[in-house]
Amino acid sequence: MTLADPSPWLAVLGRAHPVLLHAPLGILPAIALLEFGSALLRRPPPRGSVLALAWFGAATAAAAVASGLVLAGEGGHANELLGNHKILGIVLGGLCVLTAVLAFFEQRLPMRLSLLAALGVMIPTGHLGGTMTHGKDFLFAPFRELDEAPPPTTVFARTIQPILERTCTKCHNPEKLKGELLLTTPDGIRKGGENGPVVVAGKPEDSPLLVRCLLPADHDDHMPPEGKAQPTEAELAALRAWIAAGAAF
Ligand code: HEC
């Protein structure tokens, strides 16, 4: 790249669009505040400040339009959104310049109308621009996520599953399926093993899933087999309580 090559500089100007556009976004309401605020207070508007702001707004709006056009040329947003944003952005830039010119020639009423029109166009322009960068419905997404909040996790998911995962599923998973017992899914646990159900809801003492863990460690049927990671006393109590309460998933 050389300084004479304009394309990288152009690209940078394009990427400055999201920064540049915020200047008129702040300046237009500031002009409105001075202009209409003083009218409310029955004072003459501070003409010098209004005019200075109006020129500054026009210049930054023009820069925002120019950079926007460059950015649009980079592609990546070739759709209807961009088309509408572009048209509105050019109209908005034009209104900013018009407002400054009318302020310069002291055309109070037309200047105010032009300013109000610019403020009006600013809203959909900004909204479409935001939609392009943040995605559709960005603004109200937090409310939607509130509606779609996941259901509170169950005792099974919170307490029981982690115990089974730590001490049982190395052997009772879809690949190993020892004793034809699958302990990785609720369906597998409901179905039971080669000797039938392993959980009897409400009856811990009749549930092999717990009973086998309570057998003496050297018993042939003890689970998990001797030498493997064993559930703690607290975990056994949790299993018992869960089964006693109905073994819900
Ligand atoms: C190291 C492997 C291994 C681990 C870990 C293990 N098991 Fe087993 N399990 C087996 C084998 C092998 C069988 C089949 C032989 C038998 O019935 O003893 C079996 C059978 C069972 C059965 C009997 C199924 C039927 O219908 O016959 C139950 C119930 C069971 N396991 C529960 C558990 C529980 C609960 C855990 C965790 C606390 C666990 N197992 C951990 C290997 C394991």
Query: What's the number of structural domains?
Result: 2
Number of helices: 11
| Main β sheet profile | none
End-to-end distance, in Å?
A: 63 Å
- Overall pLDDT, averaged? 90
Number of strands: 0
Instruction: Please state the overall shape, judged from the principal axes of the Cα atoms.
Output: elongated
Q: Name the helix and strand elements from N-terminus to C-terminus, one letter apiece.
A: HHHHHHHHHHH
**Low-confidence residue ranges:** none
| Oligomeric state of this protein | single chain
What is the radius of gyration computed over CA atoms, rounded to a whole number of angstroms?
A: 35 Å
Computed structural class:
mainly alpha
Name the ligand types: heme C
Q: Into which percent range does the helicity of residues fall?
A: 55-70%
Strand proportion, as a percent range, falls in under 5%
Would you write up a description of this structure?
By secondary structure, the protein is mainly α. The protein has two domains: 140 residues; 90 residues, no CATH class. It is 63% helix and 0% strand. The chain contains eleven helices and no strands. Helix 1 crosses helix 4. It is elongated. The protein starts with 5 loop residues before the first helix and ends in a 5-residue tail after the last helix. The model has no long low-confidence stretch (mean pLDDT 90). It binds heme C. The site of heme C (HEC) has 23 residues, from helix 10.
